[in-house]
Predict the structure of YfcZ/YiiS family protein.
Amino acid sequence: MENKTLDTVQDCCGSFMEIGTVIAEEDNVLVLPIASTDQVSAQAQFDAIAANAKQRFSDVQIASEWEQDAQRLTGRLSFSCAAERLIFEMALG
């Protein structure tokens, strides 16, 4: 069985896009900024999202950091591939 890679350029409404450049293979990290007045509620919100990710993709890596000055929690979900990240992100709506 021969494996062929096709790189094509698509034209839609006068715009051109090379297939394969839209989703990079290494684009597997979803960054979620959650603004809140307190760390506990922001962490609870992120934990719910992270639990959902872990349920769908067991090997997802989870990290979060509270930024006191910005009153924001930055959550990071690292998936094993870009397709998993994209599927999960689209399900978030």
Observations:
- The CA atoms of residues 73 and 81 lie 24 Å apart.
